[in-house]
């Protein structure tokens, strides 16, 4: 989502990162009833989800604080490196 926000929507790298994080909230809320209340057994492990929520909140707080200190160019390069590494991983280990 971040590259699309930068390239197509014309947002700056910081604003794209922040917007991406905020956009995850309604997506996750909409997914809960679909996966948890599905016919049969729920497909959500609430215990694991709790740890993910806690870790995500801590990580989002630390990331938002760090985002203020990282220069725009370095942030853009860092996001590009992560994207390339994820792409390579997807090709090598599908």
**C-alpha termini separation:** 21 Å
Number of helices in the DSSP assignment: 4
Helix percentage: over 70%
Gross morphology: globular
Sheet with most strands: none
Tell me the total number of β-strands. Answer: 0
Order of helices and strands: HHHH
Number of domains: 1
> Low-confidence parts lasting 5 or more residues at pLDDT below 50?
none
Average predicted confidence as pLDDT: 87
Strand content: under 5%
Alpha-carbon Rg, integer: 16 Å
* Helix-and-strand structural type: mainly alpha
Can you put this structure into words, describing what you see?
- It is a single chain.
- The longest helix is centred in the N-terminal third of the chain and has 24 residues, at 13-36.
- The mean pLDDT is 87.
- With 94 residues, the protein is mainly alpha-helical.
- It has helices at residues 2-7, 13-36, 46-69, 72-92.
- The two termini are 21 Å apart.
- The protein has one domain.
Fold blueprint:
Blueprint lengths: L1 H6 L5 H24 L9 H24 L2 H21 L2
Short overview:
The protein is mostly helical. It has helices at 2-7, 13-36, 46-69, 72-92.
Spell out the key features of this protein.
single chain; 94 residues; mainly alpha; 80% helix
């Amino acid at each position: 989502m971040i590259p699309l926000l930068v390239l197509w929507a014309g947002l700056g790298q910081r604003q794209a990162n922040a917007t991406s994080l905020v956009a995850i909230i309604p997506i996750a809320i909409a997914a809960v009833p679909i996966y948890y209340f599905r016919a049969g057994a729920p497909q959500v492990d609430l215990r694991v989800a709790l740890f993910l929520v806690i870790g995500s909140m801590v990580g989002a707080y630390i990331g938002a604080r760090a985002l203020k200190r990282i220069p725009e160019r370095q942030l853009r390069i860092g996001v590009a490196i992560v994207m390339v590494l994820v792409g390579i991983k997807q090709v090598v280990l599908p």
